[in-house]
Amino acid sequence: MNTREKILTQDQAATIVKQWQHEHLNVVFTNGCFDILHAGHVQYLENARSAGDRLVVGVNTDHSVQRLKGPARPVCSEHDRCRVLAALESVDAVVLFEEDTPIELIERLLPDTLVKGADWALEDIVGADVVLARGGEVKTIAFLDGRSTTGVIERVLESYGRTVCRDEKKTL
Ligand SMILES: Nc1ncnc2c1ncn2[C@@H]1O[C@H](COP(=O)(O)OP(=O)(O)OP(=O)(O)O)[C@@H](O)[C@H]1O
Ligand SMILES: O=P(O)(O)O[C@@H]1O[C@H]([C@H](O)CO)[C@@H](O)[C@H](O)[C@@H]1O
């Protein structure tokens, strides 16, 4: 399978989620920026997938990330962030959302299980009320300490500063 096919429009995602639920599959939803993927993201998504039968990942668009994390972010474009996520075996579908929160997407998809990392308190998880109201589950997943995209960026800046690579074969 060409994993690119996992990257769906919201209409396509709504259709496939309905089909999976018709097949009595537990559809898990999570969301995030997933800029510069790291081992914490990978472990998180594997745990999210194991909470059900299919995992749908909502990804903030570039403009949404900029509003959330500042004008210097994202480092990786929404296309590239979706493409990397789609290549993970634990991810069954990837869908962009442009709003500040995934509430409209969650209301549209109505997943069976909503998951976020333990850096989010249960009461702060957007969409929890929607999922719980229809008898679904909301879970937080343990954090892999010491891994964050911000940390990766900070380490790169410490190591390379803002010097441009001298070797023309290297690209920043
Ligand atoms: N180290 C980690 N262990 C487990 N889950 C994580 C980890 N880092 C992020 N996540 C989860 O991955 C999802 C996406 O988070 P996000 O893209 O903001 O990652 P991040 O590394 O925290 O990014 P940033 O440093 O830019 O805030 C969230 O649900 C978050 O809880
Ligand atoms: O990558 P992040 O910052 O963990 O993802 C954010 O999650 C927010 C969360 O769903 C709130 O419970 C969400 O509102 C925001 O749009 C980012 O996806």
TrEMBL record:
<dbReference type="GO" id="GO:0005975">
    <property type="term" value="P:carbohydrate metabolic process"/>
</dbReference>
<keyword id="KW-0119">Carbohydrate metabolism</keyword>
<dbReference type="GO" id="GO:0016779">
    <property type="term" value="F:nucleotidyltransferase activity"/>
</dbReference>
<keyword id="KW-0548">Nucleotidyltransferase</keyword>
<dbReference type="InterPro" id="IPR004821">
    <property type="entry name" value="Cyt_trans-like"/>
</dbReference>
<dbReference type="InterPro" id="IPR011914">
    <property type="entry name" value="RfaE_dom_II"/>
</dbReference>
<dbReference type="GO" id="GO:0005524">
    <property type="term" value="F:ATP binding"/>
</dbReference>
<feature type="domain" description="Cytidyltransferase-like">
    <location>
        <begin position="29"/>
        <end position="122"/>
    </location>
</feature>
<dbReference type="Pfam" id="PF01467">
    <property type="entry name" value="CTP_transf_like"/>
</dbReference>
<keyword id="KW-0067">ATP-binding</keyword>
<keyword id="KW-0547">Nucleotide-binding</keyword>
<keyword id="KW-0808">Transferase</keyword>
<dbReference type="InterPro" id="IPR014729">
    <property type="entry name" value="Rossmann-like_a/b/a_fold"/>
</dbReference>
<dbReference type="InterPro" id="IPR050385">
    <property type="entry name" value="Archaeal_FAD_synthase"/>
</dbReference>
<protein>
    <recommendedName>
        <fullName>D-glycero-beta-D-manno-heptose 1-phosphate adenylyltransferase</fullName>
        <ecNumber>2.7.7.70</ecNumber>
    </recommendedName>
</protein>
<dbReference type="GO" id="GO:0016773">
    <property type="term" value="F:phosphotransferase activity, alcohol group as acceptor"/>
</dbReference>
